[in-house]
Amino acid sequence: MNIIQAIILGAVQGLTELLPISSSAHLNLFPWIFNWGTLTESFDVALHIGTLFAILVFFFKDWISLLKGGYNQVVKKEKTTEGKIFWYIVISTVPAGILCLILDKVSEKLIQTLATTCKVEEIVIEMILIAIALIVMGIVLYVVDKRAKAKVKYQDITLKQSILISISQAFAAAFPGVSRSGITMTVGRGMGIERESVAKYSFLLSTPIVAAAALYEMRHFVFNLPFVIGIIVSFIVGLFVIKFLLNYLKKGSFKIFAIYRVILGIIILGICFIR
Q: Domain residue spans in the chain?
């Protein structure tokens, strides 16, 4: 991995992790198209650390309030929206983490089995599955967002809604192309949560899962220049993308992202066929 590649992938991660268009799809696509070799798990996690820092910095005041609220709710028995949301995030992360580990093994086995059965490279099978996930989830996102009502605000999210949104992250983590933010926002919209509120809650919910993955992979990290540059670029781009999306969703819908997903999925299938 050279510096130019690190900059490009860092920018790709910052743009696509926080928009509902799947960072895993794009991080697999670029090295595959340009023959950069397989993206290592540690570098992939490093890029996610950049966007994790972007979420922590952008929502710094929110996290401070959530931590204080969570502490006060247990120690001082003070019930607040911040305390409720904090413990919802904590409780919801546990089943999501367990399901992530299970589905990750299922995903690996599925790709290996299909590659062996079809007698093609695993990367080709993976790209086909990514394309299908992009298209299917793009259509689902569009339909759900168009039909769903915006009746639930951020502070009114329930524990049941929080758990369902959090669990959906596991499918994105295990199956590239689904998109963590894409599926969480789709599930949230399906339950009537406002677009801006579900985007914010989706970002907050992703924090503990991504942080846990980073801690787990940290023993494999190689802190060279491209590694550090990738984190910095994804962090900077991520900050701008969060601000853009939250402002955009005050009036806009997810339609443009759904259309992009379908078009990209068709392009990937076309490349697979040509190759």
A: 3-274
Residue 87: closest CA among 58, 67, 59, 107: 67
Nearest C-alpha neighbor of 21 from the set 243, 182, 229, 223? 182
Are 148 and 188 spatial neighbours (Cβ–Cβ below 8 Å)? Answer: no
Whether the full predicted model's pTM is greater than 0.90, yes or no, is yes
For residues 169 and 210, what is the distance between their CA atoms, to the nearest angstrom? 10
- The string of DSSP codes covering 172-199 is HHHSTTS-HHHHHHHHHHHTTB-HHHHH
Rounded to whole angstroms, the Cα distance separating 22 from 172 reads: 8
Taking alpha carbons only, the member of 139, 148, 159 closest to residue 255 is 139
| Helix 180-190 / helix 159-174 crossing angle, nearest 10 deg | 150
The three-point CA angle 188-257-42 to 5° equals: 80
- Strand locations in 126-185 (E): none
Distances (CA, A) of 195 to 18, 36, 119, 176, 214: 14, 37, 43, 23, 28
Render pLDDT for 218-270 as a digit per residue (tens, 0 to 9): 777 878 899 999 999 999 999 999 999 999 999 999 999 999 999 999 999 99
Name the phi and psi angles at 35, rounded to 5: 55, 50
What is the phi/psi pair of residue 193, to 5°?
-80, 140
